[in-house]
Design brief:
- The protein folds into 2 domains: about 110 residues, no CATH class; about 160 residues.
- Helices cover about 20% and strands about 35% of the residues.
- The protein is built from 4 helices and 16 strands.
- The protein has a 16-stranded antiparallel sheet that branches.
- α2 packs across α4.
- The protein starts with 12 loop residues before the first helix and ends with a strand.
- The relative contact order is 0.12.
Length: about 300
Amino acid sequence: MHDPFARNFPLNQALRSWASFLEQKHCPPASLEISQQPLSVLCQQALLWAALGKETGEQRYQEAANRLAGMIAPVTQFPAIWSSESEYSKEETQCAVDLFRRALGHPSERKIPEGFFSELEHVTLVPEEQTSRPYELFEQDGDSMIYLREGVRAALGAARLGSTQFLAFGLQTNPQSFGVDLVNEYVRKEDVWIHVERKPFAFSLQSTGLKSPLHLAFYVDAKECVINEKVFKPRSLHKFQGTAEKIQFDEISLTTNISLPTELIPLAGDNSFWGASFLLTFRLPLSGKLNVQIAK
């Protein structure tokens, strides 16, 4: 088999370490820790294990690939999951997810760029059902929403309703500080602990004693946004700053139980900010409970 690690895309440090691991033909771990790896790396990791099992004939590599596939197959519709904004590559993620889905037996017409793991197009993955996952997934009428339950500097979750994608949502103090530490029912941002109640397409944040501004941010891929009957488009200098309880992205509404200081910034929809076309932020109240609902 040709060297699958020589390709035309930059490898991040996590994938380099896995490539070295596989080249040395070490036995894959019995347990899988996935919350610190971007989705693109996890897809490639499963494919590499399957390829190594096919090359060596050793079943343990295929079994490890199938275990990992069972963990990530339900969430490939959330491309930004587990990925920080700085390490996210839209093209690499799309190619990795597409190859992964092909290995699951899903047809695709996307042409994989030359040098991007082309040797892995013929491996097969059979997802193994996992009883414990580091996320909660809700699905209803073709729509889906995921909440992460563990992670460091991670998003709270993501959602897809129709053609509108909430690529990542979570807490930040400024655009460079997105992400929280997740511990079961709580999130920690610096020295502040906030209780999270997760429901299908709705969640609550209970904060107490905030001493400095903290924002709830949504990175959204949509064609337009409407706030207080004003229409905003991507790639525009037209921003919104004010208060709002309801924001409309295409046919999807995002509502809160209280009116909050709100800012909407149109984005370019390119490789930055996970490919989002809008950044929406609410400034959290210093105390009390905030309820958020996303619905058609």
